[in-house]
C-alpha cells in the first residue's frame, strides 16, 4: 500500500479528472498545442473560464505551457496524461 500522503495526492489527481470541462480541455490538448483563445473558441466558453481550468491543470502538473511573444500555448505535460485519458475512455466504453 502506498504511503498516506501519496494516496491523498492520488485522490486529488482523480478529483481533477472529475470535471467534464477539464477533460474536454485535456482531450483538445492531446490533439495539439493551443492558446487560451483557441481552447475557448473550440469549447465555446469564455477565456476566463478556460484560464481558471488551466490553472488547476497546471497545479496538478497535467499541462505545461510556453510563451511565444504575448501568447501562451498549452500542451499536455507528458505522455502519462494521454495514457490516463485513453485508459479511462477504454474503461467507460467497455
Automatic annotation (TrEMBL):
Q: Which organism is it from?
A: Ruminococcus gauvreauii
Residues in HTH arsR-type domain copies:
2-94
Entry annotated with the keyword Flavoprotein:
no
PANTHER family from the UniProt entry? ARSENICAL RESISTANCE OPERON REPRESSOR ARSR-RELATED, HTH-TYPE TRANSCRIPTIONAL REPRESSOR CZRA
Q: Which SMART domains match?
A: HTH_ARSR
Any idea what this protein is called? Metalloregulator ArsR/SmtB family transcription factor
What PROSITE patterns has UniProt attached to this entry?
HTH_ARSR_1, HTH_ARSR_2
**Protein origin, superkingdom:** Bacteria
Question: What keywords are annotated for this sequence in UniProt?
Answer: Cadmium resistance, DNA-binding, Transcription, Transcription regulation
